[in-house]
Every structure is written in structure tokens, then in C-alpha cells.
């Protein structure tokens, strides 16, 4: 019965060992394109927009706040076709002391709720921290940038998303209705 639940879950599921997919379900294959067999043995890095994004998320999983073994975020991922899309990602490490050893991850396509806009890795970081409610000064401290640099990144985000003010930008970034 557990195989039936895993295989036919309404959200994409994957088991990763050392950041390599060892098993995935039908919805995962439908979300990323192809069949479940296409993903067995595939490094999850192949589904990130860039190696830099893959490394950044990996570094986050090493932070003390991620030591609980659970992690979640919303990020841009890459389909097998190369198309980028927004994805809600949640994961749990079976071995929190070694977060990459074995983990169960869910992937939900949320691209209908928000457009994919080309962002630099730094703009992506500023966007994520802005959505978490951090001020420009707090973001600057966390990213080791001046608050003016953060404000410059926010100005670019406002322009790219066609938002007039910060609350409108946050609504567009999070997919919330205005």
C-alpha cells in the first residue's frame, strides 16, 4: 500500500541520497517531464537553473537553522525540456546530522501563480528575504551588503515585476492576490 501512496501522491515526491534521485513518483515525472525511469540516478543538480543555485541551496541546508532535518522554500527549477518554473519544495532528511545522506522531498509546480522572471542570484536572494519581511538594513546585514545596494536590487525587482511599491512586489513574488 505504501508504494501505491508514494507512486500516486498528488504532489511530486523524490527520494534523494547524497543529492542524487534514487526514486521518484509519477507526479514528479509529470512535473519535470518524462518518466520515473528518466530520473533514477540523476543528480538533482540537473534540475536547478544553475550550479550556483544548487550550491546556494546546499549551503543553506548546512546552516544551524536547517539542522532540524526539515526544509522548505519556493524556488525556480528546470524541467527536462530546459524550461524554468516556480516550484514549492519541501524536504525532510532521514539523517538530520548528515542532511544530504538520505532525504524525502516534495516538489509542487506553482508556476500558474507567478511568472518566471529572469533574476540574478543576488536579486533572488533579496527577493526571498524581502518576502520574509526583512528590512533593507536586515537584508544588507545578512548578505553583507550596504542597505543602498539592497535598495538598488529592490528597485530592479520592482521594475522587472511591474510593481509600484514593495507590498505589490511581495504580492507578486508570493503569488498572493492584490
Number of strands: 5
* CA-atom Rg in angstroms: 17 Å
- Major β-sheet strand ordering: 2-1-5-4-3
CATH topology of the largest domain: Beta-Lactamase
Number of domains: 2
CATH superfamily of the largest domain: PAS domain
Q: Which H/E pattern describes the elements?
A: HEEHHEEEHHHH
Determine the number of helices (DSSP H or I, runs of at least 4 residues).
7
User: Mean of the pLDDT scores?
Assistant: 89
- State the shape: globular
* Unreliable sequence segments: none
**SSE-based structural type:** alpha+beta
Protein name: LuxR family transcriptional regulator
Keywords: DNA-binding, Transcription, Transcription regulation
Domain HTH luxR-type: 112-177
GO molecular function, one term: DNA binding
Structure write-up:
Strand 3 and strand 4 form a beta hairpin. This protein has 2 domains: 112 residues, Beta-Lactamase, CATH 3.30.450; 54 residues, Orthogonal Bundle (Arc Repressor Mutant, subunit A), CATH 1.10.10.10. The protein has 7 helices and 5 strands. Helix content is 37%, strand content 21%. Helix 5 packs across helix 6 and helix 6 packs across helix 7. The model has no long low-confidence stretch (mean pLDDT 89). 18% of the residues are buried. A 5-stranded antiparallel sheet has the order 2-1-5-4-3. It is α+β, with helices and mostly antiparallel strands. The longest helix has 15 residues.
Amino acid at each position: 500500500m505504501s508504494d501505491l501512496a508514494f507512486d500516486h501522491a498528488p504532489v511530486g515526491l523524490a527520494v534523494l541520497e547524497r543529492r542524487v534521485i534514487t526514486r521518484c513518483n509519477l507526479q514528479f515525472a509529470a512535473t519535470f517531464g518524462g518518466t520515473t525511469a528518466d530520473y533514477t540516478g540523476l543528480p538533482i543538480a540537473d534540475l536547478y537553473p544553475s550550479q550556483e543555485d544548487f550550491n546556494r541551496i546546499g549551503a543553506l541546508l548546512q546552516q544551524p537553522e536547517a539542522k532540524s532535518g526539515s526544509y522548505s522554500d519556493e524556488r525556480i527549477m528546470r524541467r527536462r525540456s530546459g524550461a524554468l518554473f516556480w516550484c514549492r519544495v519541501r524536504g525532510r532528511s532521514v539523517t538530520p546530522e548528515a542532511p544530504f545522506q538520505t532525504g524525502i522531498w516534495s516538489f509542487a509546480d506553482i508556476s500558474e501563480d507567478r511568472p518566471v522572471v529572469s533574476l540574478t542570484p543576488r536579486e533572488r536572494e533579496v527577493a526571498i528575504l524581502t518576502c520574509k519581511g526583512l528590512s533593507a538594513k536586515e537584508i544588507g546585514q545578512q548578505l553583507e551588503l550596504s542597505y543602498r545596494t539592497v535598495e538598488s536590487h529592490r528597485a530592479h525587482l520592482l521594475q522587472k515585476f511591474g510593481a509600484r511599491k514593495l507590498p505589490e512586489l511581495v504580492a507578486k513574488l508570493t503569488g498572493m492576490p492584490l
